Amino acid sequence: MFQLDDKFLQDVGLGALPADQKQMFLDHFREQLELRVGTRLSEGLSDAQLEEFESFIDRKDDRVNSWLAANVPQLEEDPIYQQLKAGAPAEIPQNVVLAEYASLKWLGLNRPDYRQVVAQTMEELKAEIIANRDAILGGVSGDQPQAA
Q: Range of 121's domain?
């Protein structure tokens, strides 16, 4: 996966952002990424599928648990679940881990291309940032047309 951190900012040419703006920019980037990925992933899904997936996002425990029981009855044996559970901070409740796991499994079944969609969207957003970094940094682009 990818990390939204100082290295990411360096990679897209925004390492010079003032410290107080770095986290704000990363938060904005994450929101845009989630919005665009969500929009693309929802294309072609039925209303029932979208409602089912939203119940995982909203952590509706009864819906999460019934979906897991029907679709992944041996979740404790799944390495993905084990990794999520082991990587979750101690203060994260079990139902949050289950909802995250259900979301991943659901995407794998209903949108098996979700990893590619995330990667493609990430690359598109990075290209937009790179193309607009002077404006983002508040600088003036040297690519101004010359008067004839």
A: 22-45+114-133
